[in-house]
Amino acid sequence: MHKVVSTESNVIWVKVSDKLTKEDYAALIGSWEKMIAMHGKVRLGFDMENFHGWEPVAAWQDLRFSLTHNDKIERVAMVGEKKWEEWVTKLGSLLIHAQVRYFDSAQLSAAQRWLRE
Predict the structure, then answer these.
(1) Of 111, 65, 116, 67, which is closest to residue 85 (Cα–Cα)?
(2) Separation CA 51–CA 79 (nearest Å)
(3) Of 26, 68, 102, 112, which shows the fewest CB atoms inside 10 Å?
């Protein structure tokens, strides 16, 4: 499940919980593409609370979007509460040219500042 929490300039914050589905990801990609059309580049923030990952099709959509829009993503902030979320963030940082950082859930405001810098 996802919920777009805020958009500010070229920054989009999304709160994700449970498991992201193919439908969730289709909606997210649509909002990211609109932001890219408006600003040229986008910065993405994910606040993961009680997050359980992606359905396989959603994970594939995520990877495909990241690779095809690689030059349009400037920064990605992942805010989580589990060690595996930190590892997924590190793995993801190897696949795209954007700056990618993991923040512990207590560092949400620091992650928000970092995306706006």
Answers:
(1) 111
(2) 11
(3) 68
CA-CA-CA-CA dihedral for 23, 37, 43, 117, to nearest 10? -160
| H helices present in 1-117, as ranges | 22-39, 56-68, 83-93, 108-116
Give the pTM.
0.84
Longest dimension (CA), the chain: 35
- Domain spans, the chain: 2-116
Its CATH class, for the domain covering 2-116, is: alpha beta
Per-residue pLDDT of the chain (117 residues; tens, 9 = 90+): 555 655 678 999 999 888 888 888 888 888 888 889 999 999 999 998 888 877 777 766 777 787 788 899 899 998 998 887 787 777 777 778 889 899 999 999 999 999 998
- Write down the residue that tokens 């690689």 correspond to: 70
